[in-house]
Amino acid sequence: MTYNYISDSGDMYEADGIRVEWDELGEGLNGDYDEHDLNDVELLRFSVYLHKDRFKPTPYDDEPNEDGWWTAQDSSFCTRVPITATAEQRLALLKLIHAEAGPHDMSRMSWITLDNLS
Prior knowledge:
By secondary structure, the protein is mainly β. The chain has a domain at 4-21 and 46-77 and 86-117. It has one helix spanning 87-100; strands at residues 4-6, 12-15, 18-28, 31-32, 43-51, 69-82. The mean pLDDT is 89.
C-alpha cells in the first residue's frame, strides 16, 4: 500500500497505510465555539486512521471497518488551525501531521497552527 490520495478540498490525505482527515465539529479556543465571543475562533480537528495492511490493531483499538481502516488510539485532537484555512493550507498541514502519524499518541500535533507553514 504505497499510493497517495489527496482530496480536492484539502480535508484528507492518505499514504502508506495512514489517513489523516480534518473535521469541523464546532470547537473553539475554550471548548465549543462561541459565535458571540469576538475573541473565539472556530477550529479544525484532525483524526488519524490506520489500515490493517500496514498496521496491526491492538486489543485497545477499534475493529477495522469493512475497508480495513480503524481510528488510531490517541489520534484525534482539536488544533489551533481556523476553519477558514484554505484548501492548500489544510493539505499542507495534513501532510505535516501525516509525517508524524502512526500508532502512537498524537497530542503534540494539537498545537499545530498556520504558522507551521512558514
